[in-house]
Amino acid sequence: MTDPRDDALADIRDLVRRHGWAIRHVLADTPAGQAAFSYTVGLTSRGWPELIITGLPPMVADVFIRNAVDVQVEKGPFRPGDRTDELTETGDVVFLSADDVSGMSATTEIVRAFTALQLVWPDSAGHFPWQDGYRNPSASQPLLGAASS
């Protein structure tokens, strides 16, 4: 019997081979309290950081990541601290250096050495997790690196 993780990794390798990159979605682990997250595999081959986003359902995270890749194709890679309103109609997002990439297991397995940026989204009032007035629980969007000011 084959291990489902091996099959999933083979599928991601195939997507990267065919398209140059892929998105991996990890569902929330409610008993452990882990928020859902999604990340890229393969952007490193373009000379870009990999991307990760936490706390959003896969379909929503997918749109953010695909939009971010499209903007990078047009304008070049995002860097830590970059802020843009080009990914959503509801306001800015910010890119932070992702220091904790331990959850990006497929990227680690396939790409090996890489850097990553976390795409951080605001709450409904436009506040980010490090700002006063942030309305969401801190566990809803874990930060994987130092917060922006």
| Portion of residues within helices | 25-40%
Q: What's the number of helices?
A: 3
What is the makeup of the main sheet?
6 strands, mixed
Structural class comes to: alpha+beta
Strands side by side in the biggest sheet: 1-2-3-6-5-4
| SSE pattern, N- to C-terminal | HEEEHEEHE
In round numbers, the mean pLDDT is 92
Strand content: 15-25%
- Quantity of strands, as a count: 6
Q: Give the N-to-C terminal Cα separation.
A: 50 Å
Can you tell me the overall shape? globular
| Whole-number total of structural domains | 1
Cα-based radius of gyration, to the nearest Å:
15 Å
Runs in which pLDDT lies below 50 for 5 or more consecutive residues are: none
Description:
With 149 residues, the chain is of the alpha+beta class. The protein has one domain. The chain contains three helices and six strands. The chain has helices at 4-19, 58-75, 105-110; strands at 22-26, 37-41, 50-54, 83-84, 93-97, 116-120. Strands 1-2-3-6-5-4 form a six-stranded mixed sheet. A hairpin with an 8-residue loop joins strand 2 (37-41) and strand 3. It is globular. The model has no long low-confidence stretch (mean pLDDT 92).
Quick description:
The protein is 27% helix and 18% strand. It is α+β, with helices and mostly antiparallel strands.
Core attributes:
single chain; 149 residues; alpha+beta; 3 helices; 6 strands; 27% helix
